[in-house]
Amino acid sequence: MPISVLVVDDQELMRMGLKMVLGAHPDIDVIGEAGNGDEAVRRAAELLPDVVLMDVRMPVVDGVTATARIVAAGSGVRVLVMTTFDLDEHALGALRAGASGFLLKDTPPEDLVSAIRSVAAGDAVVSPKVTKRLLDRLVAEDPTSLRDPKILDVLTAREREVLEQIALGHSNAEIAAALFLSEATVKTHVGRVLTKLGLRDRVQAVVLAYETGLVRPGS
């Protein structure tokens, strides 16, 4: 079955371009489009696409709010947000709302297609290091964004170490080297961290690590 995609952008020309790019790939099927966040929420509920390609800055309802509503619906629809700037606080808001990652609008077509495939397969596509830069900036500007660190009490000491390594943007191989573990063991720990904290992917793990103060700006 091809990957079903809902394209959301307030600019019709942008939607047309995205549909042309994605339509050239037989494993991707653009099943609908929307011009604002409110319409995106309704269309996502009707069509249940595998992936929503979501603009973040839109009229009526913005992409961050729309992302939160789509994720909260519990349908399993995954959201990939697109933004103009890599240090866009709106993109971070979408990640906090449950998006599986974000891309810049000048992303090459082949990278966009690869990202959609990855998200549909259950992976996150935003680099944790990019997320880290966003959080370094925004947590420093807004200390009220921190959450109760007791959330992390469900983790073992080793799992907290693994979460900290994830938040620093390290790969499984890098974590294995830093903690003197095998990659298979690291993978197991990562899975347990995500499960215990109710997170969908590594990106949300990075966000939570910052919000609980496990990792501080500039770490």
From TrEMBL:
<dbReference type="InterPro" id="IPR001789">
    <property type="entry name" value="Sig_transdc_resp-reg_receiver"/>
</dbReference>
<keyword id="KW-0805">Transcription regulation</keyword>
<feature type="domain" description="Response regulatory">
    <location>
        <begin position="4"/>
        <end position="120"/>
    </location>
</feature>
<protein>
    <submittedName>
        <fullName>Response regulator</fullName>
    </submittedName>
</protein>
<keyword id="KW-0238">DNA-binding</keyword>
<feature type="modified residue" description="4-aspartylphosphate">
    <location>
        <position position="55"/>
    </location>
</feature>
<keyword id="KW-0804">Transcription</keyword>
<feature type="domain" description="HTH luxR-type">
    <location>
        <begin position="148"/>
        <end position="213"/>
    </location>
</feature>
<dbReference type="InterPro" id="IPR058245">
    <property type="entry name" value="NreC/VraR/RcsB-like_REC"/>
</dbReference>
<dbReference type="InterPro" id="IPR039420">
    <property type="entry name" value="WalR-like"/>
</dbReference>
<dbReference type="Pfam" id="PF00072">
    <property type="entry name" value="Response_reg"/>
</dbReference>
<dbReference type="Pfam" id="PF00196">
    <property type="entry name" value="GerE"/>
</dbReference>
<dbReference type="InterPro" id="IPR016032">
    <property type="entry name" value="Sig_transdc_resp-reg_C-effctor"/>
</dbReference>
<dbReference type="InterPro" id="IPR000792">
    <property type="entry name" value="Tscrpt_reg_LuxR_C"/>
</dbReference>
<dbReference type="InterPro" id="IPR011006">
    <property type="entry name" value="CheY-like_superfamily"/>
</dbReference>
<keyword id="KW-0597">Phosphoprotein</keyword>
